[in-house]
What we know:
It contains 14 helices and six strands. Strands 1-2 form a two-stranded antiparallel sheet. A two-stranded parallel ribbon has the order 3-4. A two-stranded antiparallel sheet has the order 5-6. Helix content is about 60%, strand content about 5%. The two termini are about 40 Å apart. Strand 1 (about 150-155) and strand 2 form a beta hairpin. The longest helix has about 35 residues, at about 110-145. It folds into three domains: about 15-105, Fumarase/aspartase (N-terminal domain) (Fumarase C, Chain B, domain 1, Orthogonal Bundle), CATH 1.10.275.10; about 110-150 and about 160-355, Fumarase/aspartase (Central domain) (Fumarase C, Chain A, domain 2, Up-down Bundle), CATH 1.20.200.10; about 360-420, no CATH class.
Amino acid sequence: MATLWNKGTTADERVEAFTVCNDRILDLQLARYDIMGSKAHIRMLERIGLLGKEELSVLDAGLDEIAESVENGSFVLEDDVEDIHSQVELLLTRKLGDVGKKIHSGRSRNDQVLVDVKLFLRDQLLAVRDEVRALFTILQDLSEKYKEVLLPGYTHGQIAMPSSFGLWFGAYAEALISDVCMLHGAYKVVNSNPLGSGAGYGGSFPLDREMTTRLLGFEVLDYNSIAAQLSRGKAEKCVASALGSLALTLNKFAADCCMYMSPNYGFIRFPDFLTTGSSIMPHKKNPDVWEIMRARCNRIMAAENEISMLCGNLPHGYHRDLQLLKDILFPVLESMHECLEMADYMLHYIEVNDHILDNPLYEHLFTVEEVNSRVLSGVPFRDAYRQVGLEVNEGRFHYNPRLSAASLGHTHAGSIGRLCTSAIAARMAAALEW
């Protein structure tokens, strides 16, 4: 196998297979970022005199050619090549000869992997942010569309107080704001430049690390070479934590949808083409999409802990354990993209039941409304509470099932009568500015 560290000896094939694992497959996702990092690096090498202008020109053109193959899908990682870094260098050396061998001057695979992963994660977080924006928009649209349709609220799994579809949809829209803030925090962590830190201790070349920071669009430089290497694992953990926060929001919404789709509730439905059936029960319409989303989000939430367990107890410096970070985080990112896109797709077809309260099952939903009404007329709260409680126990409490959200008189900010949709939209707009 072609390796950057080859010194005339070869490793046992079983050792190579065990230590490389899925890394070669996952590395393909880093191809464009490895080329980006290399293009910035060679410009810096020319600036400090380690490359001539003509050498820079041919290397830059060679990298552009490889980048084009990545974009058109013809780029491959050859069977006997260890990783993406080896493949790029090998292609340049085949085409350009000795000048291709100069591209690694002043770098280690450690800082090369770090910069590739950080560039990759930066783009991934921006893509997740945009997918959250789309989901937020449809949730707010649904909140406004169904703001007058009442919905039973539950505590302890029991009928509690009146809610509304406007409040329910709007709740998950607003919950996404804190998730976006978490994503932004992770973005700031990954948006720092480790290139030039080498194997963790810098080097004797007069590298211009500020230049590569500018060229790659990083916000800041990881100054201390050891600190740059310490960021491996921490950056992935921060991203996993942010994804976990978002996954918790999606998980709860999926759980709600599974429950609300059940005939025992019947609050929402989806067209037949978005549900599945039973092999023996012809009446079944199963919420498989939401169940799979709920389960996937649980797995996404577990990634932060898995990364913590992988990175814990490691002294500073590189350890091969860290290679498995990609094996944990990359599939999680893919799963998050799919969950966000599917949630958005499903919500375009959601149908709500606007006659839920016709069912006498919900006759006690308005007990608090009645207590509050009596308090407003001058009855002490405890007396009103006791009066309504006795009426419930004696079967004398009744309500109007045709009430709307507006008729309840809930006027405080964030209540079913005052959703504050515009204010929430303004908060999200500010949170998305990064």
